[in-house]
Amino acid sequence: MDASAFANKGMFDTWDSMMESYYGFDPMNDMSNKADAPYVMGTTGVRNVLYGPWLTAIIVTAANALGAQRDAPWKKSGYRLATAMEFGSTPGEGQTEGGAIPYSVMDTIDTLAIPPKTLANVIEMSTAEMAMEGKDDVLKWAELVDFRRKVILNSVDQSILAYAGAATAGNNLESIDRIISSYDEIANAGEGGTASNWNYEGKSRTGAASAYDAYVKHFSGSTATFALSYLDALMQNCIPFWDDGSVENKCWITGPDTLARMQQLIMLQFRGQMNLEPVQYTVNGAKTLPGQKSFTMVSMYDNIPAIMDKFVDKHYTTGASGISKVYLEDQNYVELAVGQPWQYQESMEYLATGKLGKRGIFHFVGEMTAFNFGCHGKLQAII
Length: 383
What we know:
Elements: H1 15-23, H2 27-30, H3 44-48, H4 51-61, H5 65-68, E1 71-73, E2 78-84, E3 108-113, E4 117-126, H6 127-132, H7 141-160, H8 176-179, H9 183-188, E5 215-217, H10 228-238, E6 250-254, H11 256-269, E7 276-282, E8 285-288, E9 296-301, E10 304-308, E11 315-317, E12 320-321, E13 326-330, E14 334-347, H12 350-353, E15 357-370, E16 377-379
Parallel strand pairs: 1-14, 5-16, 6-10
Antiparallel strand pairs: 2-3, 4-15, 6-13, 7-8, 7-9, 9-10, 11-12, 13-16, 14-15
Helix pairs in contact: 4-7
C-alpha cells in the first residue's frame, strides 16, 4: 500500500512503524550518514531516495532545540482541555454513609484544535544547466539538493524559535515562544504590537488569564540582570503542573550567551563548573544517559539538561532585546507531531513540473503541538 494512505489516519502507534511505512526502513536505526549507508549504490537515482529519510534522521537527532523536542506520529488534530476543574465544596470524594447522591457539576472542557501544517521546499535546475553540471564549475544537481537540505534544517529550527510577537505562525510550525506565553506577558510586559500574535491555535491570551497560560517571568518590560534565582522561580511556578513533581522529561532551552552567564554564576559559588551529563537527542526528546558511550555532553541546572541553540529569541518588548530567553519545557506535554515525515521527490516531466528542467521538492506535514501550558515556563528581559 502506498505510504500516503496512512497519513493522518492515526494508524501509527510508534515512530518506528511510521518510518518503516514511509521509507521501507527506519532511518533512525539503519542509517546515520549516507556515506556509510548500505543503500547508496553510487547512482544519483538511488542516492536521491535517501534525502527525505536522511533529513528526518538529522532533524530528530540534531543537537539543538529542534532535535531536543519529543517526536511522535500524528494522533489527532485536537485535544480536550479542562479549563476549570470542579472539586465540589471541598477537595476529595468523601460522602456521608446513607447521604444524598453527589451533585453532578462537571469540569469545564474546551477543545483545542491543532491543524497540521505542510512545509515544502522546491529545488530546480534548467536543462541547459543539467547538460553542463560538473563542467566549467557549474553546480551539480546533487550538490544543490544537499545544500537545500541543510537550509531546511536551519529554517525549521528557526521557525520553532521565532519571536511570538512578530507575527502569527501562518503556514510555519508554531514557535516555542508562542506556546510558552501568557496573558500577563501581553498585559504587563510592554510587548506592544498585535496582541493576537500571542494566541496559540486560535485560543486567545489577550482577554484574561486562562488555562492556556504558561508561567512567564518578564520584569514588566524592563530589564533585569540575569540571576540563577530566576530559573528557580520558573521551576517553582511550573512544578505544581508537573505530573509527579519529577524533573524527568524536562529541559531548559536557551542561547549560548545566557548559558555562558549561567556557567559564570555557578563558578562564582564554588571552584568548578556546572554539572555535565551525557545526553542523547532522540525521538523522545533529550534524554540523559548515565554511563552510555554515545552522547553529547550538556550542562545541567537543578538536574535538568540545558539545551543550547543559537536561534533562541532575545526580544522582550517591541524593538528591544537582551540576552537569550530561557524556556523550561515539560516534554510530557509538548511534541513535534508528525503526520508525514520528510519526503523528497524529483521529476523531469516538463508538463507536470511546468519547467523546462529538473525539479525536486522536500515536503513534510506536522505541527509543534502543546496540550498543557502551566507546566512550561519562560524567562525574558534579561541582560
